[in-house]
Q: What sequence folds into this?
């Protein structure tokens, strides 16, 4: 990566850049105010570039970054004018949360869509939720959603943060393949009515077992919180409520497990 610098290259000081990264990692208000978030690792970096996420700042360490594809992308982005900062291995590790620092990271611009701009296609499945107790659970749901070809997530209210570092790490790059929407329950209700969508909630007291229902697309799965389950407002949005059977004496399923079972059932049902 020692090519002659381009006249378009915009190198930043590493000290202030690392301070920004720490704020983005630790402070949701700071992330949301600036509409930015931080990612590290070759997989996340490549997926973000491939899916046209807008880069605010590129950060890399020449000694740590050995992946040929990532090195090539770094050169290309620098020449295109993306601001960048070079870090020593020691400096890069101060912001790395992985066991083995990859040497490449980026500050990205958040992408959150408005519901009125979403026209669901006939083959799509969405998941709506308003609370997630564990960020890692949401990251796992994002991975499953991507694996089943689902469209993305409709976040009801402001509670769920899709750009929490724990969420981003857990997605293993799947975040960049999914559409993230934030809206209110009332806007969601109107959108469902306009597009005549099938809305299915999941609860232990559901009237039907989840694998006995014929799912049609476009569809929306509504998931409740890990402890509280579906709220009354969420229930009122659903046309059907299904349950996942469990043996007597067991507690409710982990949210990511329950959501993943439902997503795969929609995928399987629609493929028959």
A:
């Amino acid at each position: 990566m020692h090519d002659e610098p381009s006249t378009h290259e915009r190198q930043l000081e590493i000290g202030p850049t690392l301070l920004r990264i720490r704020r983005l990692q630790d402070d949701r208000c700071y992330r949301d105010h600036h509409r930015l978030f931080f990612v590290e690792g070759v997989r996340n970096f490549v997926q973000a570039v491939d899916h046209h996420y807008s880069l605010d700042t590129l950060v890399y360490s020449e000694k740590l970054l050995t992946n040929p594809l990532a090195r090539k992308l770094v050169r290309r982005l620098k020449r295109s004018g993306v601001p960048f900062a070079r870090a020593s291995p020691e400096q890069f590790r101060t912001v790395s949360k992985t066991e083995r620092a990859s040497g490449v990271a980026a500050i990205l611009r958040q992408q959150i869509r408005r519901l009125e701009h979403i026209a669901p296609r006939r083959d799509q499945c969405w998941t709506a939720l308003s609370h997630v107790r564990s960020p890692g659970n949401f990251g796992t749901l994002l991975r499953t959603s991507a694996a089943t070809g689902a469209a993305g997530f409709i976040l009801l209210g402001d509670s769920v943060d899709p750009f929490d570092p724990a969420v981003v790490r857990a997605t293993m790059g799947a975040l960049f393949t999914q559409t993230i929407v934030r809206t209110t329950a009332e806007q969601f209700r109107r959108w469902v009515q306009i597009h005549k969508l099938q809305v299915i909630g999941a609860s232990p007291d559901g009237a039907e077992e989840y694998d006995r229902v014929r799912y049609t697309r476009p569809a929306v799965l509504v998931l409740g919180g890990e402890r509280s389950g579906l709220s009354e407002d969420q229930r009122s949005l659903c046309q059907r409520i299904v349950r996942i059977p469990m043996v007597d004496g067991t507690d409710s399923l982990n949210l990511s497990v329950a959501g993943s079972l439902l997503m795969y059932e929609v995928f399987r049902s629609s493929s028959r």
